[in-house]
Design a protein that fits this description.
By secondary structure, the chain is α+β, with helices and mostly antiparallel strands. 38% of the residues lie in helices and 21% in strands. The structure holds flavin-adenine dinucleotide. Flavin-adenine dinucleotide binds next to strand 5, helix 5 and helix 6. This is FAD-dependent monooxygenase.
């Protein structure tokens, strides 16, 4: 099921009492005892959850000696095209670049483009149109109908594996714990699973045992998905002609079952 990120954020925000949110507060440092230093001073809590993304201050505070995000060598553009007929969800591979499109429930089409590039290189919509002009339809049509202001470009990062997701009274979750390549579309999904698991564990076991249970439960699963996601994208970014020719000849011969089996662990989960 495809859900627009803004719609998901609205749903989550509506479920939280407004007085529980303090927007615009910049967290600067987090201590394992639950003290959070921020732009408004310092606060202490029995449980602190660092869900502050791939450049997490929480993670850096707790494990300052561990390396930060690693650029994986390809950048990603995302855009929403106006409603138009497309044949379901399709990803098309080239040499070191690919284009994917996914219909959304309201008829608009979510599109993504991934391409090998040096970090921090900026490419606009006109250049993307030019680059994909000779790809099969509906790719040129989708790019042609998009608007520049609807295009997001982000470099793709992965975080090195953490030995634990918990330190003292603090847990990290989502990208702060396990930022992954977007190849399986699982980063936000795993963040949601983390949150549900952590809330359930702390509710039933208390903070200390709940945090231990959260780490035990979530680390193996999320780190497996980080690896699977990395592997799932690798062949799309090959650039050597012999390798891509071999890839394009062999992939269509593999049974669909093989792909389904490798994806099943990511898409099946119960608490
Ligand atoms: C190109 C691309 C495509 C993707 N596609 C998918 C997909 O199809 N499906 C999917 O499930 N996932 C996808 N993802 C992954 C997904 O975006 C992330 O995994 C998800 O957003 C992680 O959620 P999070 O809450 O952990 O972190 P974030 O969404 O990064 O949220 C972190 C929050 O913390 C705040 N913050 C950060 N630092 C501080 C600070 N110091 N003080 C206060 N606040 C702070 C930020 O402002 C932000 O609001 C994609 C990612 C990329 C880059």
């Amino acid at each position: 099921m495809t859900v627009h990120r803004a719609a998901l954020v609205d749903l989550l925000r509506a479920a939280v009492p407004p007085e529980a949110l303090r927007p615009g507060i910049d967290v600067q440092h987090v201590q394992p005892d639950g003290t959070v230093h921020h732009g408004g001073g310092a606060s202490t809590a029995d449980l602190v959850v660092g869900a502050d993304g791939v450049h997490s201050v929480t993670r850096r505070s707790l494990w300052p000696h561990l390396p930060g995000p690693r650029y994986v060598g390809y950048t990603t553009w995302r855009l929403i095209a106006p409603p138009q007929p497309v044949e379901g969800s399709v990803e098309t591979w080239g040499r070191g670049e690919r284009f994917g499109h996914v219909p959304m429930p309201d008829g608009r089409i979510y599109c993504y483009v991934m391409a090998n590039a040096p970090a921090d290189s900026h490419v606009g919509l006109d250049e993307l149109r030019e680059r994909f002009a000779r790809w099969r339809q509906p790719i040129p049509a989708l790019l042609g109908s998009a608007h520049e202001e609807a295009v997001l470009q982000h470099d793709t990062h992965e975080l090195p594996m953490l030995p634990t997701y918990v330190s003292g009274n603090v847990a990290v979750l989502g990208d702060a714990a396990h930022a992954m390549t977007p190849n399986l579309g699982q980063g936000a999904c795993q963040a949601l699973e983390d949150a549900v698991t952590l809330a359930h564990a702390v509710d039933t076991l208390g903070v200390c045992a709940g945090l231990e249970a959260y780490d035990r439960d979530r680390r193996p699963r999320t780190q497996l998905i980080v690896r699977r996601s990395r592997q799932a994208g690798a062949a799309a970014h090959w650039i050597s002609t012999p390798m891509t020719t071999l890839r394009d000849a062999v992939l269509p011969l593999l049974p669909n079952m093989l792909f389904a089996r490798s994806l099943t662990p990511a898409y099946t989960w119960t608490i």
